[in-house]
Amino acid sequence: MILSIETSTPVCSVALQNSSGRIFEKRTEGRGVHSERTFLFIQELLERTGTDISGLNAVLFSNGPGSYTGLRIGASAVKGNSVWKRGAILYLSHSYLICSRSWVSE
Prior knowledge:
By secondary structure, this protein is of the alpha/beta class. The chain contains three helices and five strands.
């Protein structure tokens, strides 16, 4: 199972892919929402899917470029939730995602 956190843009998004491949997502957009919602979204998704933090295989984190404050909130969420023993932390550039999507579309 993979937990994905995006806080580098005005959109605060947390997604969880369960072991069967189904994706659950919570998101909101606005100024200052990252600090209010990121940890809440993580908790809600774990509860909704009946997942314990120790059941995660990896956490995917968008590491920018973007809002410095948003990136710090996302990084603290990753670090704060890295209590599982076997999981990996994966960092992915937001710019890379945009470029790869553009390349695939052509």
